[in-house]
What we know:
Elements: H1 3-22, E1 26-30, H2 33-43, E2 49-52, H3 56-60, H4 63-68, E3 74-76, H5 85-95, E4 100-103, E5 107-109, E6 114-118, H6 122-128, E7 133-139, E8 143-144, H7 147-165, H8 171-175, E9 190-194, E10 203-208
Parallel strand pairs: 1-10, 2-3, 2-4, 4-7, 5-8, 7-10
Antiparallel strand pairs: 5-6, 6-9
The chain binds iron/sulfur cluster.
Residues 159-160, 163, 170-172, 178-181, 183, 186-188 line the site of iron/sulfur cluster.
Amino acid sequence: MDAHQQKxxxxxxxxxxxxxxxxxxxxxxxxxxxxxxxQILAMIPAGxxxxxxxxxxxxxxxxxxxxxxxxxxxxxxxYKPGLAPEESIAIRRQGLTADLMLASSNAITLDGRxxxxxxxxxxxxxxxxxxxxxVLVVGMNKVAPDLESAKARVKNYAAPVNAMRxxxxxxxxxxxxxxxxxxxKRICNFWSIIEGSMVPNRIHVxxxxxxxxx
Length: 214
Ligand code: SF4
């Protein structure tokens, strides 16, 4: 990424952060994933608990190995290999009582609205209520000009790519495009648009000046 792209990322991010603040959320900017990682690790409460939200961004950043190695920190990880489906669901429920949830957002608008789409709904539920603090790490590739384009990004890109990642039996896994299916494995069941937070600064968005996740 050249200096002009970096300048665009930081300038646009500062505008989004100003909007997040108007919406009683917090925001910060990290020029790259390494800086974002430092910011996030400093937010993990000593001796506290952390819910792992479904997020490729946090996996790409190598955050979970670091958090799981922190002494006294409990991680609620519903994605642990080998878990039975009912065990994974039980951990998602337990995670609603966590001190902090760490995830990403499928999209963010220029005016600071967070747009997400879930299959089961546990991720958007925890973003809305449960964990005392919600930290969302969002690459600047997920910025959309407005609500309509944010929803289009999620439906036409993020959801099909996730269906491919999980090799789901859905039309988008085969064709790359949404067919508004009714497949049992449909991952587009629960929309969430976060417009603000009644609890000031409960949600903190870290915008990162590089591509992360999808
Ligand atoms: S509705 Fe179905 S086809 Fe469309 S993105 Fe979601 S899972 Fe894929």
